[in-house]
């Protein structure tokens, strides 16, 4: 490095008009040598730093082998994944509860009522075959309908040929902060339509209430 700087100073002192072009060439050569030296010096420093971090045996800071470190990280990640998975399953198992909900089926005829009364066990959703529980109570009432009178007034009347069926069902399920689920993942939401099948008839009703009960 000192030799390069000395040559640069000497070229300034000895420069004449006749040797101007040669002096320029010499400067370019000197600067090129300096750039190569600087780059080489920087590369050597980086290699020294890397050697301090990773030694010749492949150990990190001379203590931990890189391969061993990668294996340890992989094992930790796998252990965390397994813990979260089993902890989640354990929470679901501990959260098994008895959920009671009511479903209102409106304006059905007597044959449908008779078919519903044939079986109260293992009610399922026909499309998915998800278990909806057992029917524990049934309340039958005449369907009501609002009609318009000749004078423009409205009147509520009972239909003699149609019935409303309010069914209470119980099923094993899970309660979260916002929702209720059966164990097979059927979400029970008040106000939503639900389809029920008891092996004899399929009915469409609206969920009126959902709650957890203690047996």
Describe the overall structure:
The protein has 215 residues and is α+β, with helices and mostly antiparallel strands. It contains 4 helices and 10 strands; from the N terminus they run ααββαβαβββββββ. The strands form 2 sheets. Strands 3, 4, 5, 6, 7, 8, 9 and 10 form an 8-stranded antiparallel sheet that branches. A two-stranded antiparallel ribbon has the order 1-2. Helix 1 runs antiparallel to helix 2 (20-53). The termini are far apart.
Write the layout of secondary structure elements.
Layout (H helix, E strand, L loop, with lengths): L1 H12 L6 H34 L5 E2 L3 E2 H29 L1 E13 L1 H7 L6 E2 L6 E18 L5 E22 L4 E3 L4 E2 L4 E5 L4 E12 L2
Antiparallel strand pairs: 1-2, 3-6, 3-10, 4-5, 5-6, 6-7, 7-8, 9-10
Alpha-carbon distance between the two ends: 91 Å
Our Rg estimate from Cα atoms comes to 42 Å
Low-confidence stretches: 86-94
Series of H and E elements:
HHEEHEHEEEEEEE
Q: Report the strand count.
A: 10
Secondary-structure-based class equals alpha+beta
Q: Number of helical segments?
A: 4
Principal-axes geometry comes out as elongated
- Strand fraction equals 35-45%
- Helicity range of the residues? 25-40%
Question: Which terms would index this structure?
Answer:
215 residues; alpha+beta; 8-stranded antiparallel beta sheet; two-stranded antiparallel ribbon; 4 helices; 10 strands; 38% helix
Brief overview, please?
38% of the residues lie in helices and 38% in strands. It has 215 residues and is an alpha+beta fold. The strands form 2 sheets. Strands 3, 4, 5, 6, 7, 8, 9 and 10 form an 8-stranded antiparallel sheet that branches. Strands 1-2 form a two-stranded antiparallel sheet.
């Amino acid at each position: 490095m000192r030799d390069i700087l000395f040559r640069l100073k000497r070229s300034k002192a000895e420069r004449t008009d006749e040797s101007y072009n040669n002096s320029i060439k010499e400067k370019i050569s000197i600067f090129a040598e300096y750039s190569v030296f600087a780059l080489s010096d920087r590369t050597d420093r980086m290699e020294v730093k890397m050697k301090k971090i990773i030694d010749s045996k492949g150990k990190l800071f001379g203590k931990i082998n890189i391969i061993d470190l990668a294996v340890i990280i992989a094992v930790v990640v796998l252990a965390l994944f397994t813990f979260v998975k089993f902890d989640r399953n354990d929470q679901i198992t501990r959260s098994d509860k008895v959920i009671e909900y009511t479903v209102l089926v409106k304006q059905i005829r007597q044959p449908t009522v008779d078919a519903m009364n044939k079986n109260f066990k293992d009610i399922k959703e026909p499309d998915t075959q998800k278990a909806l529980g057992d029917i524990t109570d049934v309340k039958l009432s005449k369907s009501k309908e609002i009609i318009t009178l000749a004078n423009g007034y409205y009147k509520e009347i009972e239909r003699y040929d149609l019935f409303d069926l309010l069914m209470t069902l119980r099923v094993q399920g899970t309660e979260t902060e916002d929702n209720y689920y059966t164990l097979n993942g059927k979400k029970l939401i008040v106000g939503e339509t639900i389809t029920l099948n008891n092996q004899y008839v399929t009915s469409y009703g609206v969920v009126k209430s959902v709650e957890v009960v203690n047996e």
